[in-house]
UniProtKB/TrEMBL annotation:
Name of the molecule in the record: Transferase hexapeptide repeat family protein
PANTHER family: DYNACTIN SUBUNIT P25, GAMMA CARBONIC ANHYDRASE-LIKE 1, MITOCHONDRIAL-RELATED
One MF term in the entry's GO annotations: transferase activity
One Pfam assignment: Hexapep
InterPro entries, per the entry: Hexapep, Transf_Hexapept/Carb_Anhydrase, Trimer_LpxA-like_sf
Keyword annotations from UniProtKB, A to Z: Transferase
Membrane spanning stretches: none
Region: Disordered, residue numbers: 177-198
Ranges of Polar residues composition bias in the record: 188-198
Residues making up the signal peptide according to the UniProt record: none
Length: 198
């Protein structure tokens, strides 16, 4: 669902995918190959939200801010299921873990990883390539090349997902029984394992 607010209409690039159950309000700019999952709420009612190319904002995430603040999710930022970004900026190729909360005026530096369920307090400035965990969140080490490569490969899957969804996603009635010739998804799993070196 897209909503105009105080004359501002969301802008969504053609290669982005926004699920029909997501809610996008007002001054929101969504770039190329962005994935916005079901149940996500992106409220650009009190300030501008820029979601740059290749980002993903997964299921049930919230992106919002205090009045008069504009925020940016830089290219390749990856926001895991249920996370909240409130008035914070995310650097390039950042990973925000599931159900993490990033509070106002905080900045997560490029290449950083914030662990699931972490709470990043307001005004926190996280340097580039930091691994951050806990409540309150703290830096425990630097993100290694191996970790950053793992993150980047996962984000690439989400960058490919919009095209795959446009090609094959459609409403349907569920089946009462599994088909005898139901295909396997092992190819995707094999690809992921190969990308991880496993």
């Amino acid at each position: 669902m897209f909503y105009e607010f105080q004359g501002f209409k969301p802008v969504v690039k053609e290669s982005a995918f926004v699920h029909q159950s997501a809610v996008i309000i007002g001054n929101v700019l969504i770039g190329e190959k962005v994935y916005i999952g079901p149940g996500a709420v992106i409220r650009g009612d009190w300030g501008q939200i820029i979601i740059e190319d290749g980002c993903n904002v997964q299921e049930n995430c919230v992106v919002h801010m205090f009045p008069g603040v504009s925020i940016r999710l830089e290219e390749g930022a990856h926001v895991g299921h249920g996370a909240i970004i409130h008035g914070a900026n995310l650097g390039r190729n950042v990973l925000i873990g599931m159900n993490a909360v990033i509070m106002d005026r905080s900045t997560v530096g490029a290449g950083s990883i914030v662990g699931a369920l972490s709470f990043v307090k307001a005004d926190t400035q996280i340097p580039e390539r930091s691994l951050v965990v806990g409540n309150p969140a703290r830096i425990i080490k630097e993100v290694s090349d191996t970790m950053l490569n793992w993150k980047s490969k996962g984000t690439e899957l989400y960058q490919e997902l919009p095209g795959e969804l446009y090609a094959s996603l459609k409403e349907c009635e569920p089946l009462a029984e599994e088909e005898a010739n139901r295909p396997k998804q092992e190819k995707l799993f094999q690809t992921w394992n190969e990308q991880q070196g496993g």
